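ENTRY TYPE: paired fold submission
RECORD: A
CONTENT: sequence, then structure tokens
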Amino acid sequence: MEETKQFEAKMLEHISRIFPGGIDIIEYESPELTPFLFYLIVKRLKERNSPIIILDILDQLHVIRTLLELSGIKPEIIDESEVIKLGGFLKTGKVIERIDVHKDIMILRDKFLRTIQELTKNREHVILIGIGAEKMVRIYERDPMEFEYFFALIGRAMLGDKRLSRIIFLNKSLLDKKTVIELEELASRVFEIKLIGEVGIGRELAFRIKKSLHFNEYGEEIRIKVQDFQKHLQSI
């Protein structure tokens, strides 16, 4: 149990060092543990009174909430969180704004920027935690021109705005390798989640810092046994 607490504390120490105006990407290929890490990060940031808003892309938050509940973890922390819905139909959490996914990237950009500007108008700082980003990227990935507009207008446009920091969960196994590299170039930090070892008691969750502007943490990796991690989450 002590090792689990140390893993959590170290991981959250890294997460909490997010740059104002920056983008942190949490990459994964195996989605099994994503709901648990998402839950832990949201829960602990809210406990610290961090000003978070969840960006629910194409109903992925509903999937996360359902998987948590089926695993024996109470999802109230999601139900109580402010949520911006980007596409999708299922209401999860306290939805404060809905943005329709539009084929015209300029229309989508205008709606998205207006929403963010309105939300940050009376707040010193907001942390936007996005889930399901790969599904949105795939819509534009097929058309090189639309894809470049997507990066320029959605990704780069708000980069450096100190009122807004972004933590984006990204299933990179669903995207082209070049797309992942372009996304990583935007990020101030990239974290990588991996499952290591054979299925069973010895399997571990590895949390590695793949890129960071905090040079002292670059390349650092922490691990925890998967079973211990899940038991810990069920107890908090």
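RECORD: B
CONTENT: sequence, then structure tokens
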Amino acid sequence: MKYREYFSLTHPQQRIWYMEKINPHQPLHNIGGTVKIQGEVDFVCLEKAINYFIKKNDGIRHRFVESDEKVHQYVE
């Protein structure tokens, strides 16, 4: 089993978690958008770019675990 270091949530994260808990099906904190690409897409290159972005940005790899009404986070 892989060792994970767990962290407490910041106060803003706790507020977001609480709002999501009482409003589970309302995307209160989601930001949407679209991009229109004209021309051919190199999907291999696009996949590499997305994976690189995920690897370099810890916030994208945060995972949250809830137990006993407390929530903690770790970076995957």
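NOTES ON RECORD B: The longest strand covers residues 62-67. The chain has a mean pLDDT of 90.
STATUS: closed
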